[in-house]
Amino acid sequence: DAGITQSPRHKVTETGTPVTLRCHQTENHRYMYWYRQDPGHGLRLIHYSYGVKDTDKGEVSDGYSVSRSKTEDFLLTLESATSSQTSVYFCAISWREGTDTQYFGPGTRLTVL
Amino acid sequence: DQQVKQNSPSLSVQEGRISILNCDYTNSMFDYFLWYKKYPAEGPTFLISISSIKDKNEDGRFTVFLNKSAKHLSLHIVPSQPGDSAVYFCAANAGGTSYGKLTFGQGTILTVHP
């Protein structure tokens, strides 16, 4: 168990509302990632962080923003949720960049009506 | 542009037999490859990895083979067990300044029948 929690685990919201998902780690890992999983696409990287206040965009970053004010927390925000953002969201952590294993949290299932 | 592809959406195998899951990639910058296993309602869990300097890596019942010239990797599970039934994802990393970003395949659903 890699010491990663995600909250909430499930959320139903309406189109146009803001949503924030939280990832919390107890491992003091430097690198954190947000992915979304959709049928037929596997997992796709949304944003990642390589340190406190250091973040960058991934493959599918449109409509999402992130913040990392502490090593242990990485927040994903949907400023104005859309139905296309209905998905399962996973947070991951790793100790080093490059050839290092990423460990995943349990996921958040988000439904946007 | 799918840089990592798992062309078989599903695979069905009898308990005790070998399961072979395949993955193809197009980006020649990828130099580290991983396999993850995912059960429903859980996050992916790491299974095994291989660096591009190797062509084989074993861990118990799991072996990953890498063919760099063909840009192809495979995961062998021997013998297969019903508890292996899950979705399997291959993933690739370009190393260097990629900050560990992973590119995943679409996944293959493995079903192992008792």
Protein described:
The complex is a heterodimer of chains A (113) and B (114). Chain A is mostly beta strands. Chain A has no helices and 11 strands. Chain A has strands at 4-7, 10-13, 19-25, 31-38, 42-51, 54-57, 64-70, 73-78, 87-94, 103-104, 108-112. In chain A, strands 2, 4, 5, 6, 9, 10 and 11 form a 7-stranded mixed β-sheet that branches. In chain A, strands 1-3-8-7 form a 4-stranded antiparallel β-sheet, with no helix packed on it. The radius of gyration of chain A is 13 Å and the shape is globular. With 114 residues, chain B is mostly beta strands. Chain B has no helices and 11 strands. In chain B, a hairpin with a 6-residue loop joins strand 4 and strand 5. The mean pLDDT of chain B is 94. Chain A binds chain B through residues 4, 31, 33, 35, 40-45, 48, 50, 56, 58-59, 90, 94, 96-107, and chain B through 4, 6, 31-32, 34, 36, 41-46, 49, 51, 89, 91, 93, 95-107.
Number of strands of chain A: 11
Proportion of residues in β-strands of chain A: over 45%
C-alpha termini separation of chain A = 33 Å
What string, H for helix and E for strand, traces the elements of chain B in order? Answer: EEEEEEEEEEE
H/E series of chain A, N to C?
EEEEEEEEEEE
Largest sheet of chain B: 6 strands, mixed
Largest sheet of chain A: 7 strands, mixed
- The number of distinct β-strands of chain B equals 11
Instruction: Give the proportion of residues in helices of chain B.
Output: under 10%
Oligomer: heterodimer
How would you state the average pLDDT of chain A, rounded? 93
> Which residues of chain A sit in consecutive blocks of at least 5 with pLDDT less than 50?
none
